Every structure is written in structure tokens, then in C-alpha cells.
Amino acid sequence: MKIKEIIKNIPYISFVGDDEISLDAITEDSRKVNNKTAFCAIKGFTVDGHHFIEEAIEKGSPCIIHEKPVEQREKVAYLHVKDGRKTLGEFAASLYGNPSRHFQLIGITGTNGKTTISYMLKEIIAKGAVIGTNGVLFQDQKIPLAHTTPSGDELQKIFKKLLNQGASTVIMEVSSHALALDRVEGSDFDWGIFTNLTMEHMDFHKTMENYYEAKKKLFYRAKTGGVINIDDPYGRRLYQELQGRENYKMISYGFSKDADICALHYKIQGNKMDALLSICGHEKKFNFPIMTKYNLYNMMAAMGYCLGTNQWSLTKNLKNFSGAAGRFEQVDNTLGLHLIIDFAHTPDALENLLSSIETNGKILLVFGVAGDRTREIKEKMGEVASKYADEIIITTDDPKKAKFQDIVKDIKRGFSKDTKYHIIENRKDAIAKSLSLAKEDDFIIFAGKSEERIMKYDGYEKPYHEKETIKKELEKLNGLK
């Protein structure tokens, strides 16, 4: 596509050069440039993309997008913009034909529940695709992603590919980082879903107010409506703030009596749940293939979308929901143990997970906390672990720049005096230890890593996958089904 066609609806300060130049890609990574690629120079938190403009030109880029004044070369087009991050997404969307305008786009945001809700919606929506923590999922394909929400250029490229493959709906986990850093610019959202807001990412947002303001952006992008958990105080606040929007449909859910979808009662029996819900004042009984209260919230969120889009008949497909990978995922074994993998990596998520377990046996917990989490979060994670688990193994979970000993010290601040725990830095050894400690009918909870494929250290990464590691340890014990 020619530059003049790409930028005709994009705000910019000035353009210098030949606007007849044809492009087929845009990137903020100078290593990915060729003679058909626009290079977008963004002043980041640690790296300034303007330092790589010359490298991009040497590699053939015919178009430079920049925020700062730059020295200009002949035969190169220069687009001067106010905000490179926003322009990256807008430019990419225009370049790829604004793909998100041609399918239904659902954004899910909140601290917990995003992945599970996205899997639930994929289960019930024909030709539905998912973009999120577990990668891009559509039909039989699964493509891993570096971030829950990809960068603006990558996201629009994924949208274009999914559209070409026949996706009718794209269900996307939208992280607070993506909203704060404008990664979703150029994305045409139809619906937003809000799950909850608890302390997380304080290293980035600094305050809960900033965190909330980032999440809120999604609902001012979604043009049709929002599905909101009003049991959560931030959710209720959001619901109230959105009340005045014209032609904007809102569906509330929760245990609150004034919710459009209200859980009146539920009972867990084995791997199933019987629930009595009030749907806009009409009581209905349901049987769900879930066994936790927090997944009932997730079910209600998915049902809220069906209610809001007048597709209530789709809810019947929720009875086929088999769970999201790495979310309360059970690992089969011959040892009579309940082995559960879960992504719980915040105090609230960990408490929801552990408090939902009913057993006559013990609960053993294998977990760590990422090094860049605040001391307060690490301590709170320790407090929750100590409250619910009978025995704990503290181990590694993305230490990044922090020392393992310092992470352990912060976690232990939350322990009660009689907490029974072990400290095993190597996660594989921690898993082996947990299996040796457990007896038939005990639960072992492996929290934090879920479906992630790497362990992050200071400046480098190592391959790691929780389920594969557990299976290898089970094989040693002849305990793998």
C-alpha cells in the first residue's frame, strides 16, 4: 500500500518525502526491516528507538516514523508524529486494511480470569479465535506470544491473518500494560469484559488508581457495550462511570442482588457445579463442568456476553467447557494424587484457588513470586499460602534481577509461626520433593508458571514448562498415566 493511502486518516505533525512509496510492513524493531518496511522510532523507558534510525535506513527502510526532529536523508520518507506508540498501531491497522472492523472484537481485562473466560467464549462462539497468555488459538493452530497482548504492529498482523483464515470473532485478553502503552491503538473493539482488580503490576503502575485508569480505557474503546463484575469495588465504580454513555449496553454480573446475572446459590459435587442464577429477575438452574467459585464468576462473564448480544442460546454450549490450559488443570497420575497446575500469581488469585479446595487430605503448595513484584505482594502471597496450605515449598518463579534469597525472605514475612515449609530453589527439584511428600488423596498445587515456556532470569531466559516437568518426575516414580 502507498504511504499516502496509509496516512490519510492518521494524525501527524509533518510528512517529508515521496508519499507514493509502497509498504507492506511496519516495525519498531530495526532488525526486522527491509525495503518495504516502515520503521517506527519510539522513545522507550530504557531504549530510544531514534538511535536505530540509521541502522533501519541502512537495511533498506524507505520510511521513518519519528517523534523527535531527525537528520533527513534523500530518498527516504519521514513522518513526524506526536506519539510513536499510538502511531505504530494506527499505521499498522491502516496498512493491513483495518482488519478488526471486519469481525467482532471482544476485549477481556482485569487481574484474574481473563484466560479462562476467553476459552469459555471460544467454546461457544463459532469460528472464534483467542489472543492471550496462552498464545493465538484458532481452530487447530496455536501460536505462542511473547506478551499477553502483542505490540501494535504484531497485533494488527495477527488480526489480518485471522480474518483471512475466516475468524468471525476474536476474543482478546487485554493487559493493563497494553492499554497504558497504547498497544491496542487501531483496534476496533465491540465489547469489553471486566473481571476484577487486585494488587498487581505495582512496579509499573505505581498505584491502584493508575492501574484502574489503564483498565478503564478498554471500555471507552468498546463501541457496543461492557460486561462488568459489580461485586468488585472497581467494577462497580466502572459500571457507575459508564452509566451516562449513549447507545452503550451494559451487563452486570456477580452475587450482588442488583446484578443482571446474579448467583443466588451454588453447590459443588465432584467435578460439577449446580447453580441457581437470576437472569434479569428470572430464576434458572444450571449445571456447569466447574468446581470453584471463581470459575462461576467466569461463567457469568461469558453468559453476560451472550445476554448482551441477544445470543442466550449459546450458553448451552458452556456445558462442554473442558477448562483452559494451565488454569486449574489436573495432571493424571497413578499415585492417587490431585495434581493441579494454575497460573495463580497474585494474592487474590492464590486465595481464590486454595480456598476453593475441599479435601480430607493435605494441601501442598509449590510456588514462588516473580522478582519484580513488590515486597508487599510477596509478603501477601506468603500470608495466603500460610493460611491455606498444610505444607509449602518455596521455589523459583521468574526471579529476573532479584536474588532468590531476597524473594524467599519477603515471602516468609507473611508466614505464621507454625507454617511448615521447605526452600528449594530449583523448580524441578521442588516438584520432585512435593511428590515425595504427598500421599493418596492429597492435593499438590503448582502455582504461577502455568503454560509459560520460559523462566526469566537477569538478562537471560531458560526453557521451562510446568506440565512437562511434572510428567518427567512422575515417570521416575512410575506414576504417569
Cα-based radius of gyration, to the nearest Å:
24 Å
How far apart lie the N and C ends? 54 Å
Residue-averaged pLDDT: 94
Taken from the alpha-carbon principal axes, the silhouette is globular
State the total count of DSSP E strands. 24
Helix content: 25-40%
Structural class: alpha/beta
Strands of the widest sheet, in order across it, are 9-8-7-10-6-11-12-13-14-15-16
Unreliable runs, pLDDT <50, ≥5 residues?
none
Number of helices: 15
For the sheet with most strands, the description reads: 11 strands, mixed
Strand content: 15-25%
Provide the fold topology:
Blueprint lengths: L2 H4 L7 E3 L8 E3 L9 E4 L12 H6 L4 E4 L10 E4 L3 H12 L8 E6 L4 H11 L3 E5 L2 E4 L2 E3 L8 H13 L4 E5 L2 H5 L10 E4 L7 H4 L2 H14 L3 E5 L3 H9 L7 E6 L6 E9 L2 E8 L2 E7 L4 H16 L20 E3 L6 E5 L4 H9 L7 E5 L7 H14 L2 E4 L9 H9 L8 E3 L3 H11 L5 E5 L6 E3 L4 E3 L2 H11 L5
Parallel strand pairs: 2-3, 3-4, 4-5, 6-10, 6-11, 7-10, 11-12, 12-13, 13-14, 18-22, 19-20, 19-22, 20-21
Antiparallel strand pairs: 1-5, 7-8, 8-9, 14-15, 15-16, 17-18, 23-24
Question: What does this entry look like structurally?
Answer:
This protein has 481 residues and is α/β, with parallel strands linked by helices. The chain is built from 15 helices and 24 strands. The protein has an eleven-stranded mixed sheet, sandwiched between helices. The longest helix has 16 residues. It is globular. The relative contact order is 0.08. The model has no long low-confidence stretch (mean pLDDT 94).
